[in-house]
Design goal:
The longest helix is centred in the last third of the chain and has 35 residues, at 174-208. The chain has helices spanning 9-30, 40-67, 75-101, 112-131, 142-167, 174-208. By secondary structure, the protein is mostly helical. The two termini are 32 Å apart.
């Protein structure tokens, strides 16, 4: 493998910013589940495409890390950050895919609390898209990112718990409860993955400061 000795900072940070853009694109598609008449198949298929695009981006980033002699951040930190970003889209895509495959489109509507989970994810994606371009230099404003990301993750936890209360209230048939619970778990995992991204960034900030 040939190593590059030229400065590569801009290229690395551009990768992370592009990944944040992919995540925002994916969550925006997921948010269509809250529409009056969502096209469940289209939502699932488009998210598969976005997730595939991000997998390719992550693969290119790993190749660039491994072929660059001097990197702007610790190699392990960059690998971990790229992996956590990829996790977000994995869970978002899985949630939409399960809604479609399980035939949850037959329900009168997606539970309100599940839409609240998706609303939190949308806010987290906006936050990530805003702050990822500021990753270079790790200025003090990045602290606002992980503080707000933690607050949003707590909002997501509350929406998840309230959804569980509704699912176990007897409103839905047992099989439907199981299906909705799997979708909710993927949405909760996506919410947690956003916080994992912020934890990596906070750790890098502490290390570099």
């Amino acid at each position: 493998m040939r190593f590059s000795l030229k400065p590569q900072e801009g290229a690395f940070y551009a990768f992370f910013t592009e990944a944040a853009g992919n995540i925002k694109r994916g969550v925006t598609i997921l948010s269509e589940l809250g529409d009056d008449k969502p096209d469940f198949q289209s939502i699932s298929e488009r998210l598969v495409d976005v997730e595939h695009d991000n997998d390719q981006l992550t693969h290119r980033l790993f190749n660039k890390i491994n072929s660059t002699f001097v990197t702007p951040m610790d190699r392990n930190d960059m690998h971990e950050l790229a992996g956590k970003l990829d996790d977000v889209l994995d869970h978002v895509e899985a949630a939409a895919n399960l809604v479609y495959l399980y035939g949850l489109s037959e329900l009168p509507a997606i539970p309100r609390e599940m839409i609240e989970q998706i609303t939190v994810l949308d806010s987290q994606a906006d936050l990530l898209a805003e702050y990822m371009p500021k990753l270079k230099g790790l200025n003090s404003s990045m602290k606002e990112f992980w503080v707000e990301c933690n607050r949003l993750e707590n909002d997501g936890d509350r929406a998840y718990r309230m959804l569980l209360v509704r699912l176990y209230s007897g409103e839905y048939e047992t099989l439907t409860v199981m299906k909705l619970k799997e979708v909710a778990d993927e949405l909760e995992a996506a919410c947690d993955s956003f916080e994992h991204v912020s934890n990596v960034i906070e750790a890098v900030y502490v290390k570099e400061s």
